Amino acid sequence: MSPTADVREQILEANRQAAEALRTRFLQEKTLVVNLISSPGAGKTTLLEATLARLSGKLKTAVLVGDIATERDADRIRKLGLPAYQILTGGACHLDARQVQGALEKAGFGALDILFIENVGNLICPTSYDLGEDFKVVLLSLTEGDDKPFKYPAIFARARVALLTKVDLLGIVDFDVEAVERQIRT
User: Fold this and answer.
1) In this structure, are residues 53 and 79 in contact, taking their beta carbons and an 8 Å threshold?
2) Which stretches make up the CobW/HypB/UreG nucleotide-binding domain (predicted)?
3) pTM of the prediction?
4) Over the stretch 31-40, which tens digit does the pLDDT of each residue have?
């Protein structure tokens, strides 16, 4: 094994251990954890705003928001009067389980029914990193093109749910929904 591959394996193993510790914690606390993944601008924050508004007063929710810079997305959630904690990666293209552990300790959310993790906008890097979540949700916007499940099959294979966003543009942009659905299901 090359030194580079060995370092990568060590990083992924450390992440796996941290993710297992998180998973155990979430199971004990009976917290459902959803990891949202998409390209930048696909609509993760907009989906969260709509979802959280519907859940408000019914379930205790919070959001961890990953981004390279700024707290804009976390601020949007906070404007709804809901708890959100920003994880600034400083250039890293994904969140890892240790970042989630640290953020949870600092955020002090308390008992939750659902924790949403809005991962950094990227279809490649977040795929390999387990965050202790119950499942991944991948968002694909029509404006990205219908080739994304072909170009980035790993995230579409690992996600339990795939959501198509910006569907109001169907018929305006060239997008083959059936081809996307076939590719995701294979």
Assistant:
1) no
2) 33-185
3) 0.95
4) 999 999 999 9
